[in-house]
């Protein structure tokens, strides 16, 4: 609601992301990742993914949680820290290897799709909370939908940058393993350990 009220045209273009690439084509030239709309959508992304992780934790934990607000706040803080740390490391790597333009375009495309998916995750989280459908089958359906959306995002970004990736495929694979997969594996290990 706030995004639509403050940035009406940009929000309209953003919501058409699923059907057209107009938003990416127009806004990717700006490279303003710290533009108000992008910061607002990143905040929504962090909050909606954290809420989904919290609901997942509650679904698979048999014990009753006494301090649920504190746990949700810790999840929001941890996920927000990971997202911002990844962003910072990507920008440092881009600066060191003098590929700022390429990385800025990639980060903008990736973050735009992730922000869009987070809106869907938020809606699915609300559906999970308020639905009469048994929660575990619904949860697995939501996980499948999220994996399909993330796979489509990765496919789209790779397809748009295929010429560049084909020249540096080894570095691309290293990047995917080190900065896209490893942080979530580490986070999973930390959550399951503690």
Structure description:
The protein has 194 residues and is mainly alpha-helical. Helix content is 83%, strand content 0%. It contains nine helices and no strands. The longest helix is centred in the middle third of the chain and has 31 residues, at 100-130. The protein starts with a helix and ends with a helix.
Strand content: under 5%
What's the rounded overall pLDDT mean?
79
Q: Please, how many helices?
A: 9
Secondary-structure class? mainly alpha
Task: Give the overall form.
Answer: globular
- Range of helix content: over 70%
Total domains: 1
Q: What is the β-strand count?
A: 0
User: Terminal Cα separation, in Å?
Assistant: 36 Å
Order of helices and strands: HHHHHHHHH
Spans of at least 5 consecutive residues with low confidence: none
* Sheet with the most strands, sense and barrel status: none
Radius of gyration: 18 Å
């Amino acid at each position: 609601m706030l995004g639509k009220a403050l940035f009406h045209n940009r929000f309209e273009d953003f919501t058409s992301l699923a059907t057209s690439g107009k938003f990416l084509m127009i806004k990717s030239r700006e490279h303003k990742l710290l533009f108000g709309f992008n910061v607002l959508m990143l905040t929504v992304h962090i909050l909606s993914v954290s809420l989904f992780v919290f609901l997942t934790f509650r679904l698979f934990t048999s014990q009753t949680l006494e301090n649920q607000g504190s746990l949700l706040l810790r999840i929001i803080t941890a996920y927000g820290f990971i997202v911002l740390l990844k962003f910072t490391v990507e920008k440092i790597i881009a600066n060191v290897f003098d590929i700022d333009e390429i990385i800025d375009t990639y980060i903008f495309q990736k973050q735009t799709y992730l922000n869009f998916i987070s809106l869907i995750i938020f809606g699915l989280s609300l559906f999970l909370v308020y639905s009469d459908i048994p929660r575990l089958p619904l949860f697995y359906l939501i996980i499948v939908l999220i994996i399909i959306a993330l796979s489509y995002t990765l496919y789209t970004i790779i397809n748009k940058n295929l010429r560049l990736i084909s020249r540096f495929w080894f570095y691309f694979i290293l990047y995917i393993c080190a900065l896209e997969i490893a942080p979530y594996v580490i986070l999973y290990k930390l959550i399951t350990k503690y």
